[in-house]
Amino acid sequence: MSLSDKLPQTSDRYAMMQRFRSREAWHVMKILSEFVESAEELQQISPAVSIFGSARTPRDHRYYKLTEDIARLLSDAGFAVISGGGPGIMEAANKGAYYGNSPSVGLNIVLPHEQRPNEYQDLSLKFDHFFSRKVMFVKHALAYVVMPGGFGTLDEMFEALTLIQTGKTRKMPIILCGVEFWSGLLDWVRQRLIGDGLINAEDLDLLQLIDDPQQIVETIFTFYETRGFEALPEEREQLLNL
């Protein structure tokens, strides 16, 4: 059998490419639709705080109760609370806000395991793609509260840090709650990232380690009152050129 016998015929290759392009175009359209639909739904949710943490935290764990208390205080203070909409810490965040005065928002992701929508959502959105979901977490929040969690929680936290460090989004409080859990990571950042010159020492100031729920709310409220409307560098440049 010759090589030409083993390769697809030209007409078949063309048809295959057309099918591929059609699938990719449809895939892109689905991603764009997630951005458009979620932006429309969330435009009235302001001010808001995003809370992250593990989907595996049981309801009788102290971090679950702590998250619920933080979310309730934020909600009663006038902040909508945005979580991933699933179980564990996400459920605790939605639950605290649900029984408060401000909206409880869940940005749910379709996963084969772990993720199932919790029942404490005033507004529930569904995403198929992590990156469009992450954009909504950052775009519609003026602060992050990061509870103990796994890869997903770390991904969200470092994504926010990177966007702020590089000036791609406004500076906002990123509060780590859980001294026992986060202290080791912060020590590693000081020893390896700062020690090896991979980040600047002042970059660590983007993170705050606070365990007291009332202090967390006061920190966010102070930021909202004094710096919540700080313009991005390119926005300041545009204003100067007017």
TrEMBL record:
Signal peptide interval: none
Keyword Hydrolase applies: yes
Top-level EC class as recorded in UniProt: hydrolase
Keyword entries, A-Z: Cytokinin biosynthesis, Hydrolase
Gene3D superfamilies in UniProt: 3.40.50.450
EC number, UniProt record: 3.2.2.n1
Pfam families documented for this protein: Lysine_decarbox (PF03641)
Protein known as: Cytokinin riboside 5'-monophosphate phosphoribohydrolase
NCBIfam families (UniProt xref): Rossman fold protein, TIGR00730 family
Source organism phylogeny: Bacteria, Pseudomonadati, Pseudomonadota, Betaproteobacteria, Neisseriales
InterPro entries xrefs: LOG, LOG_fam, LOG_family_nucleotidases
Family: Belongs to the LOG family.
Species the sequence originates in: Vogesella alkaliphila
Reactions this protein catalyses: AMP + H2O = D-ribose 5-phosphate + adenine
